[in-house]
Amino acid sequence: MITAENLTKRYGGYTAVDDVTFEVRPGTVTGFLGPNGAGKSTCMRMMCGLTPPTAGATTVLGKPYAALPNPGRHVGVLLDASAQHTGRTGREVLTLGAMVMGLDRSRVDEMLDLVGLTESESGRRIGNYSLGMRQRLGIAHALLGDPQVLILDEPANGLDPAGIRWMRGLLRGYADEGGTVLLSSHLLHEIEVVADELVVIGRGRIVAQGSKAELMASSGTTVRTTDDAAFAGRLQEAGLQVTAAPSGLLVQAEPLQIGTLAATHGVVLVELKEAGSAGLEEMFLQLTADDAREEVAA
Ligand SMILES: Nc1ncnc2c1ncn2[C@@H]1O[C@H](COP(=O)(O)OP(=O)(O)OP(=O)(O)O)[C@@H](O)[C@H]1O
């Protein structure tokens, strides 16, 4: 279990994390989603005792991270895959980790195998690794101590599609065996397949949280008609919130209500379905619109 309670971080007059409260439960993968600069890494750094909170508290397995004895045996952390000594080989990094945590050296080979780094790759200096190889090494390091909790900041960054699929399988299996996973990303599609729960952050504040199923169910309905512009007017007259979707309209209402309105006005429906992940994406963009760099620049 990971908890954050009223977690706040200010840098001078700037509030990077603002009164954030959420829990990450065992047996689940929680996706921590937000645009660039939203405050995800700062939250995770506070969870791992690397950045002191200005206010609020955070615990891992019931204690502040710093109070955990031999924390690597309990919490696997990957915050920045490139923050490794570039002159060391992958194998050396894992061997050092195993020594510090008091683990059997055989664990190093097991982890290299698990993340798919070959004998020759593990003997190369990290300075010559691709970003994807660094991420794999970072995941191996996080899993080295067989922890119950994983805190991973954008681990899919730099992985190819096969690597992303592999990582999803790994995290799903880990959570299914009772592990607790907090996984950040700025891309919904990267985590929505594997996440059970979602916490959406924008400008340091939580803007939505809940199970993926709940959030998807509340993300509206996609409708396409032979005349979307005219039907959008009818929907708005009925007091419904309507936005343009890539294909048709996204409406904040149940399909039954929209279908009934279409029938009343003699509108021909071409498509009517729960918006699901497309709606979730739209919701994510709207909820975090104030925070997107493009908006700031505009
Ligand atoms: N040490 C620091 N001093 C001042 N400001 C900081 C510091 N660390 C982070 N910030 C600011 O806090 C905000 C949140 O940063 P953070 O790295 O947590 O965002 P993020 O959600 O992880 O973004 P990304 O997806 O781009 O990694 C940013 O505006 C950042 O510039």
Automatic annotation (TrEMBL):
Residues 2-228 form the ABC transporter domain. It comes from the Bacteria. Gene3D superfamilies: P-loop containing nucleotide triphosphate hydrolases. Keywords: ATP-binding, Nucleotide-binding, Transport. It holds the Pfam family ABC_tran. One of its GO terms (molecular function) is ATP binding. InterPro entries: AAA+_ATPase, ABC_transporter-like_ATP-bd, P-loop_NTPase. Belongs to the ABC transporter superfamily. PANTHER family: ABC TRANSPORTER, ATP-BINDING PROTEIN. This is ATP-binding cassette domain-containing protein. It comes from Luteipulveratus flavus.
